[in-house]
Specification:
Elements lengths: L1 H14 L2 H7 L6 H8 L10 E5 L6 H13 L3 E7 L6 H17 L3 E7 L3 H4 L8 E6 L27 H12 E12 L9 H10 L1 E8 L15 E7 L6 E7 L9 E6 H4 L15 H10 L4 E2 L5 E5 L11 E2 L7 E5 L4 E2 L2 E2 L9 E4 L9 E2 L3 E5 L12 E4 L8 E4 L3 E6 L6 H11 L2 H10 L7 H5 L2 E2 L2 H9 L9 H11 L3
Parallel strand pairs: 1-2, 1-4, 2-3, 4-5, 6-8, 13-20
Antiparallel strand pairs: 5-7, 6-7, 8-9, 10-22, 11-21, 12-16, 13-16, 14-15, 17-20, 18-19, 18-21
Helix pairs in contact: 3-4, 4-5, 7-8, 10-12, 11-14
Length: about 500
Amino acid sequence: MIKAAALAQADYLTAKPEVVRKELGQYFTGSSIADYMASMLEPVSAPTVRILDAGAGAGILTIAAAMRYLALGNNCVHAVLYEIDQDTLSHLELNMRRVAKAFKEQGGSFTFEIRHEDFVLARPDRKEERFHASSINPPYFKYSSKTSPYASATPDLYKGNPNIYASFMAVVAACMTDDGQMIVIVPRSFTNGLYFKGFRRYLNRAMSLEKIHIFRARNQVFRESAVLQENIICSYRKAQQGTSISISTSTGHHDLSQTETNHYPARQLIDTTNAHEIIRIPETVEDAKILAGVEHWPSSFQDNGYFISTGPVVEHRTREFITAPDNIKNSIPLLRMHNIKTLKTEWTGTNKKDARFLLLNCHEKHTSNNLPYVILKRFSSKDEKRRLVAGVHNPEVIKGEIIALENHLNYIGHNDGPLKQDEIYGLALLFNSTLIDKYFRCISGNTQVNATEIRLLKLPARDTIRKIGKTYKSNSSFPQEQIDMIIERFLEI
């Protein structure tokens, strides 16, 4: 059954131009993923199980869910399937008829209704339609908060317009009957991104998060579509949040039968201590131990009085300011990501990526005071071992009253005045440690380091940070092992 649907879907993927699939946000689910998601469904105590498929495609997720219920003893199933792509409807209907035939052969009954309309705009929850289960892989794309019809489709559920997949999840959650299950495969970005703040608040109140499955390899889940977004599978139930959440891991879709599962207190994973309500995801028991230990530190980034800002030089908007590294007249060095090294900032003018910033009229919009800063790279490549790379900017090395910092950098200072050397190196050693890198990965699955997430970090007290910084010897080489030994000496986890 699943194999036939998978073949139909593969044919569709081959025939459909990639640009069209991207416009529709289509990234179809493989059969092994569909089966795994269906395995999370539990028996329903109702004469007929009602399944909702919010973006059906070829119907693989509904097929897996329906057959799962048949195996569990729920012999009567009705599915409502939404699909806007006209070209997919014939595949979808054919596959649903195959499911009906399979049910009939085993003495059961499967009925279905295909709705050729936009699920989010249709809002079946407003018509009091309720379902026992939904297994979905929603479309993924951003939309205009000013011109898109989606912008006014869900404000009664949550504030903001982060991505269409959040709208799908929100409406599906609203369609669930009490104790109903929603199984989704989605990007991890909703668990911590600033733009998803309102959506997380809604979801954390409407549903109980029961399980998260993470994939160690980014490129395995939707490899046919070359998707490198970090995706996770989440199992939610229409109920108050439970006390425990399980996290399972696999490399990709091929080893789903050999997953490793651990259980954690819900209060450890869902941070309700601030308005952002970030969902933290430790990959291992060791990561969970680090997360729990750091959360008991006595202070935080904001409590310590630090600020973090993003470099104001957006290069595609300031092309007339950017010049060659040897054009010294009326210009200052422009710091880019390649200039940031562990514990230092390096601008020599000899690197092919080096550039200078001209002090033309209105340069003040794009320059910053030349003070001691810890500078974090905002992006890391998917294969880079470290998520956090922190350099120290010394105004005695790159001199002048102002400095130019490119938009791919975040810089950290203190609200009460310039940071002293001990504190700035203490912060830099902390951010470059394996301990904080693992802690940060529990909070964020993105390769982008956002200022919002840094502001929410727990930190040691400033006095401890200064003591860590005193261990730094000027111009000395600090390998990773030595950094980690210093942090472990001052901070026991």
